[in-house]
Amino acid sequence: MEKVESAAVLGAGATASSALAALARICAGPVTAYVRSEARAEEMRGWGERLGVDVRTADWERAAESFDAPLVIATTPAGTTNALATAVPDTVGTLFDVLYDPWPTPLAAAWSDRGGKVVGGLDLLVHQAVLQVEQMTGVPRAPLAAMRAAGERALAAR
């Protein structure tokens, strides 16, 4: 698995803490979490300590600064990052936006327009479902492609 030198997380909820757990395996340097309150900042720093991740926190008002990181993970509810789309710079790394509906988000669209790599939340959802099917049924290889196609069809029907 390829390591990144640093990362940024937009948000500080349960999905953000899960992102920190993943970053513990792939991030060689600090992770900056952009949060709305000091209580959330404390929680993220606490998760970082438990996971062995150097977590720094910054106020949500500075969230556009995250775009300098080689990996940005947006973990916020729909609409929260829309205003940030106008601040996406010309050169960007990878964005993992955990949302899948609506898709693309304004942030993901702006990122893609700048030539950055974008991973969407449907990938997260489908891979979680695959693992659940495998664990619950004992099936060694759940049908990833079929499950992704079903997810795409369901979203297109909305």
Q: What's the number of extended β-strand segments?
A: 6
What top-tier CATH class of the largest domain fits best? Alpha Beta
Shape: globular
Distance between the termini: 35 Å
As residue ranges, the low-confidence spans are none
> What percent of residues are in strands?
15-25%
Strand order of the largest sheet: 3-2-1-4-5-6
CA radius of gyration is 16 Å
Give the mean pLDDT.
96
Q: CATH superfamily name of the largest domain?
A: NAD(P)-binding Rossmann-like Domain
Helical percentage: 40-55%
Q: Number of helix segments? A: 5
N to C succession of SSEs: EHEHEEEHEHH
* CATH architecture call of the largest domain: 3-Layer(aba) Sandwich
What key phrases describe this protein's structure?
single chain; 158 residues; alpha/beta; Rossmann fold; 2 domains; six-stranded parallel β-sheet; 5 helices; globular
